[in-house]
Amino acid sequence: MDKLLNEFTGTVRRAVDDYDMIQEGDKIAVGVSGGKDSMLLLLALNHLKSFYPKHFELEAITIELGFDGMDFTPVKEMCAELGIPYTCLKTDIKEIVFDVRREDNPCSLCAKMRRGALNDAIRERGISKLALGHHFDDAVETYMMSLLFEGRISCFRPVTYLDRSGVTQIRPLIYAGEQKISNLCEQLNVPIVENPCPQDKTSKRYEIKQLLSGMCARYPDMKSKIFGSMQRLPLPGWAPNESFRAGKESK
Q1: Considering the entire predicted model, what is its pTM?
Q2: Residue 249 clears pLDDT 50, i.e. is over it
Q3: Other beta carbons less than 10 A from residue 94's beta carbon
Q4: DSSP-H helix ranges across the chain
Q5: Spatial distance between the Cα atoms of 177 and 250, rounded to a whole number of angstroms
Q6: 231-240 residue pLDDT tens
């Protein structure tokens, strides 16, 4: 099991180095939803911390959206076992998005409110760097959503500085594929908190995920080529700092 985590942490370190995500003395908050991506990100960064040449500290923060039946005790217990400070903040985001506003596109507002709540929470703790669990597939899907639904060539950046809040967002999982993450969580028996959001299988992202899945059945390396093109253009913020990386998904 240690070998599996070592290999995955190597993938995370490559992204961290390519985009200069971590500096000496950083205090990094990890946004932990309880899902597989953020839980494995927390494990990998904690492992990286034990040998990375730049010293940094970690905290874990959960923004509780207000859905019934979500129990974050497994997250709290894992953080206690790892010695990572953990905070779970209750919010009324679910009520505002689904019950009050009744948004036609609830995912957009929900994401915006979650980011705002996370940024506020870490600033109160004197933290200015936030690690998010967006991975390789998220990047490709976001690129395709922007292209097909908005007519733009765009995607979130591996490192994003938000001047209004003074928070720097980092995404150390961008070289890690979703299937690799799912498989490793199962192999490592990582505790997962299921999200009962009713939009989980009806969102535009899910639609694009299904489209890409069908296309990849015929062109297996299509996602890697899309990701590589994002670096080669490059999209703003997507050129690796030192040497060019092909950006292929970690299989």
Answers
A1: 0.91
A2: no
A3: 20
A4: 2-18, 36-49, 73-82, 93-94, 106-124, 136-145, 178-187, 204-218, 222-232
A5: 6
A6: 998 999 999 9
